[in-house]
Design goal:
Layout lengths: L3 E3 L2 E4 L15 E2 L5 E2 L3 H10 L3 H4 L3 H17 L6 H16 L11
Antiparallel strand pairs: 1-2, 3-4
Helix pairs in contact: 3-4
């Protein structure tokens, strides 16, 4: 996988272990607008890549940045877009452009 890049974070090279797919994350928006996902795929990637899982999970922003980096690679490999993650991507781009603090209700991004 290509390095994961984010304007406010270091670039890291990650390895996606055999048998781990982006869909395994089960990314969703909760009713309150927070992001939820299954942690196990991220844990497996961190272990395979020598990345500290606590750093990835230190904040919602860092976890979402990591997920969006993986998502870009997912799309580059020809996989279909996922609507919830497209909403997250639009929100992250708006936050980067306007300085943060933007959160869309589920399905409106």
């Amino acid at each position: 996988m290509d390095p994961i890049e984010h304007p406010r974070m270091d670039v890291v090279e990650v390895k996606i272990p055999e048998g781990v797919a982006f869909a395994d994350l089960r990314v969703a928006r909760d009713a309150d607008g927070h992001v939820s996902f299954t942690v196990d795929p991220l844990q497996r990637i961190c272990e395979a890549s020598g990345i500290d899982m606590d750093t990835v999970m230190a904040s919602e922003d860092s976890a979402v940045a990591f997920i969006l980096g993986w998502y870009r690679a997912h799309l580059a490999c020809g996989y279909a877009p996922e609507p919830t993650v497209e909403d997250l991507r639009a929100e992250a781009e708006a936050e980067d452009r306007y300085g943060g603090g933007i959160s869309y209700p589920p399905g409106s991004g």
